[in-house]
Amino acid sequence: MIVTRFAPSPTGYLHLGHAFSALLAAQEADVFLLRIENIDPVRCKPEFEDAIKEDLSWLGLRWEQPIRRQSEHIKDYQDALTFLREEGLVYPCFCSRRDVEREAQKAGLAPHADDGTVVYSGTCRNLSKEERTLRLDRGESVAWRLDMAKAVERTGALFWHDRLQGKIKAQPELFGDVVLARKDVPTSYHLSVTVDDHLQEITRVTRGQDLFASTHIHRLLQALLGYQTPEYSHHRLLLDPCGRRYAKRHHAVALRVLREKGVDPAALRADLLGKK
Description:
Helices cover 39% and strands 17% of the residues. Strands 1-2-3 form a three-stranded parallel sheet, covered by helices on one side. Strands 4-5-8 form a three-stranded antiparallel sheet. It has ten helices and ten strands. The mean pLDDT is 92. It is globular. By secondary structure, the chain is an alpha/beta fold.
């Protein structure tokens, strides 16, 4: 049985790129799930969450209940983080984002992802136990980072299967000591998605090529946490008339605008699925 999911973040309105991904995931599924990835308390808004459900329903999609909302399952992510900490695979980092960027610039490191993040230099990796305890007790702002070298040594070589690209060797070491949680946000995208896919028994992850790099990290976390690995399908990205991928930051035309213009959802579905 194929279980897929569509997992948007309610930080804006859905656009054609979202619709394409959701339709592909639903078309492949025996069971199609909707998950709301709302771990960011600043950017995620209830009105966008409501709009997601309205737009998907208009598009003709139906999903199994209940909808999983990440903000209601923080304990699941904390439990996973606690396990990794107890295994000695996670350490506290007291560097600010600006500190990390500054050190990366000094070392000549380039951003490795669309969001501009850089490989962490490891400043806090070798702090003594006493200093870590002191700084935690003082209530300093902290991020919990995965000790990538230890993690990769623990798991050995890892692979995953992509339906469009075949057997892929995981290379999580390219991304350095990634953040798994912060003091203000108790889980990261990488940790919460990995835990959610496991708990929801997802067998196929269908998502855009822009998230291909993240799968290297997710495959590692699956191995560390003892989870099964789903099959992956990283589809191509739709481009707007300017040749850019549809994205909220590019102010892509929202589905709700198409709804207001009277676009026929059946015709839109057929057009989008014809692009796969």
